[in-house]
Amino acid sequence: MTKIWRETGFVENDPWVIETDEVKATGEEKPLLGLDELIAKADESNEIGLGVLIKPADDVRRLEPYLSRLDIVAVAFPAFNDGRAFSHASLLRQRLGYANELRAVGDVLIDQVPLMLRVGIDSFAVSNATALKRLAENRLPAIPHHYQPAVRDAEAGKGYSWRRQAKPAA
After folding, report:
1. What is the residue range of 27's domain?
2. What is the number of domains present in the chain?
3. Among 3, 33, 112, 113, which residue has the least CB neighbours within 10 Å?
């Protein structure tokens, strides 16, 4: 079973559904549209509050004219070793200025959650049993040092998250 997690805990009654041939949004649910489907819908209407699912091969820059109309962008992690969604998230947050919900969907593993948070992902569709258990216990793996800039600065130290200075010899 997939649950939605944010840093504040698990979310109840999340309305967003990734539609398939077997699963369709009904009632109060809202569909996460594919990129081409979203662009077609946005071009033919003035609807706001839309959601989109970005797959690894999609060009996330095509979303730029529609970002103000989106409530959520879901980035797909089809396998633990496919990190293109990290780049999508970083582009959305840093270059395109997207400020609404950014969700990781697919193969979301507990070891990747801190790194996903650093690139700006703020909600997670989690189905992995180990990840669900650790998130319920509020046990994220710790990453003490970061050497690259990110949406979120490193908590330790002041200044640039990517610039670390050696301590002077005593």
Report:
1. 1-141
2. 1
3. 3
The model carries a pTM of 0.83
Give the integer Cα–Cα distance in Å for 72 and 123: 10
Contact 118, 94 (CB under 8 A): no
Q: What angle do CA 63, 69, 15 make, to 5 degrees?
A: 105
For residue 86, how many other CB atoms are within 10 A of its CB? 20
Q: What is the CATH number of the domain that holds 29?
A: 3.20.20
